[in-house]
Design brief:
The chain is mostly helical. It is 73% helix and 0% strand. This is Sigma-70 family RNA polymerase sigma factor. It comes from Lactobacillus mulieris.
Length: 167
């Protein structure tokens, strides 16, 4: 990563114009109660100061328009990174379909008939994710599905199995 020096004047000007950074944070739905608010604010401050150094010939209003967009997208990228990082460390128990009690013979028969009626994607999720404990992200890459589709299908499958067991 290339290290850029920021002039003290641009950093001071960015600090004086911190309302622009706060607007970009608000537009990205990041509020003061968010635990990484200060980090994202400082990222925005640094980005703004770098833009002030980079575009010294332009007017401040043009730089502000550009800075607002750039800060907004930088914050969104950071939020996506944080989300991906947190999804990697989710406990397995939160993602699994666990049987809390022993099943009766009728429940096993209902599950067996339901398993026979699964679509190709649902049977893939059942076999690879629930039985072999492979992450959905890996399955999405391997079988060329979107992670969102697999997550949605997994939720539908789990709720359908739960309703079969509750009857």
């Amino acid at each position: 990563m290339k290290k850029e020096n920021i002039s003290p004047q641009s950093l001071l000007l960015a600090w004086e114009n911190k309302a622009l950074i706060k607007q970009a944070l608000k537009k990205a739905n990041v509020y003061r109660t968010y635990n990484d608010y200060e980090d994202l604010f400082h990222e925005g401050l640094i980005t703004y100061a770098q833009l002030l150094d980079q575009f010294t010939g332009k007017s401040l209003s043009e730089i502000n328009k550009l800075a607002h967009k750039k800060i907004f997208w930088k914050i969104n990228d950071e939020l996506r990174k944080n989300q991906r990082r947190s999804e990697l460390f989710l406990p397995i128990e939160d993602q699994e379909f666990e049987l809390e009690e022993r099943l009766s013979r009728e429940d096993w028969l209902a599950l067996a008939t339901e398993l026979g009626q699964l679509s190709q994607v649902e049977s893939l999720i059942f076999k690879e994710h629930f039985i072999h404990k492979r992450p959905l992200k890996t399955l999405a890459q391997r079988y060329n599905f979107s992670l969102r589709t697999l997550s949605r299908k997994k939720g539908e499958l789990v709720s359908r199995m739960r309703t079969k067991l509750k009857r």
